[in-house]
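Throughout our pipeline, every protein is held as a single compact record rather than as scattered files. This encoding replaces a full spatial description with a residue-level series of whole-number codes. The remainder of this section carries one protein's record, kept here as part of the documentation.
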Amino acid sequence: MIASSAIQQVSEKRVAVSNLTVSNFRSYGHAKLGTDPSLPLKVLTGPNGAGKTNLLEAISFLSPGRGMRRASLNDITRHGSSAPWAVAAQVSVSNDTVKIGTGLDPNTFNQSDAHNKRIAKQDGEILKNSNQLGDLWSILWLTPQMDRIFIEGPSSRRRFLDRLVLGLYPDHSRETSAYERTMRERNKLISEQGSRADSAWLSALEAKMAEHGVAVAIKRLDFAGQLAGQLSSQENGPFPVATLAIDGWVEGLLADGYSAVDAETAFKDRLKSARSQEIALGKSASIGVHKTDLIVTHQSKNMPAELCSTGEQKALLIALIIANAKLQSMLRGQAPIMLLDEVAAHLDTDRRLGLFEILSDLGSQCWLTGTDRSIFDGIEKQTEFYTIQDGKIQPSA
């Protein structure tokens, strides 16, 4: 059993959802949940399809981005609903309470994906965009789908990396969004006008791509270096030590000693020289921070993560998330909210109990799901349990 001392050691830095309301969200018509912010663990149990993951996804929208499923905004609205989805929460931050609301803009409801819009409010005031939520707190998550990121293409690992970086650098999403928006504009210009495209316009777009791309790369490298230090301090724990490497052309320039200005110039020149080939082949930009990959290695085995067993890959992912939570707490002065969907899957008993103990002591509010209540035995003093079935959320012993 986990020592109950973790309860008394509640960090003043903890961010905790104290009240949550979801409307027309996935399987929920309307549901409310109130929690005790002093208890670090929240466990949701119920059969498959009951709505456990949907509730975690709702919480994930209290942060920037498209949520833990990266879903289309229209697809989130409950089937058959005549009103758009919405999530409202009271979030305790130290001794303060912040009221947050977010959801699909009613003015774009039932429009195409290209025209729909998400809005967010803080204490009743509409925010400029959801990226501002990252200035308030950080939310991390692991889902069963993420168990495959080491054997899938680099895009999944890159998104995972950028979500981790966002926890330390809230403006990272602004830079990545600006980079991608500018890149799409450049690609569209080349695709539609080819050799007739205005070279001055292309040069301006490439300069912006280089500016935002180098800013993204700098934050990735800085974060990876700090996370590597945190990972190395986790030896002798229940989870393996991971080593990290970032494989990217722009990141490589910076790692080789290029200044930010010189890296921008090199990136801009490379984009310009690639225009004719891209026009001839009908390809989009083939170089840049949108091609970066995260390389993870099981340190003690000196084995790339993609060659490790399913259980070891899961353990490496958990090690990265835990190290990042500790790093955020130390450098940002605030522990993140953790959303861990079916996290106990593929973990043996020792690692499962070790995970629960670590989570209890992190200073985070951690949400966990599972179909079997028994796998959470021994953590009752640190935990609020809820049963979810038929769209209803009920406290359970």
Observations:
- Residues 65 and 131 are 7 Å apart (CA to CA).
- Residues 199-232 form the longest helix (34 residues).
- The longest strand covers residues 15-25.
